[in-house]
Amino acid sequence: MELSFRPLTLEALDGARAEAxxxxxxxxxxxxxxxxxxxxxxxxxxxxxxxxSGLLTGASGEALLTPPGARLPFEKxxxxxxxxxxxxxxxxxxxxxxLRRLSQAGVRDAALQLPAALPAxxxxxxxxxxxxxxxxxxxxxxxxxxxxxxxxxTGAARPPDRRVVKVPAPEIPGAQPPPAREPAxxxxxxxxxxxxxSKGPKKRR
Length: 205
Description:
Helix content is 29%, strand content 19%.
């Protein structure tokens, strides 16, 4: 996975460009924090409403696909539950599992934040090394420059074709947020994330 980095701010969220947004939610994480909290704010509490209704619990293994709506610059919104996991190895495996499911669903680039209990530099290294995740990732972090620098140092001797680290140029102050998109024609959250079909079009005889 090729990584770029963004600070954990509403301005960076509004200016992000990716096909899908991937959120990892813990069981009992109330209120939502980090990137999930920013998204909930931007969506006027829609994620909190899903939690109150029981549609989103954050239980380990939970997976939802829901339309992001016109207020987010993404085409798809994926939500994955991580339960009460605190072990970095388990969290890393859960993150990679979720991203592989995105790749199976045909997603080529995704935005995400690593769970708080997973060290950002360790998690970013695992993302870069994984070959089954989407090709490109936009990683939100509290200190994106430090994560990028650490990752570049630890991966300096690795081949550059598969492991590339980029830090975007600073955003222009006062820049206008992107225009609102029309919501996707989906009707609501779905608990099944389908893998791509392995069958090609039928040949005519």
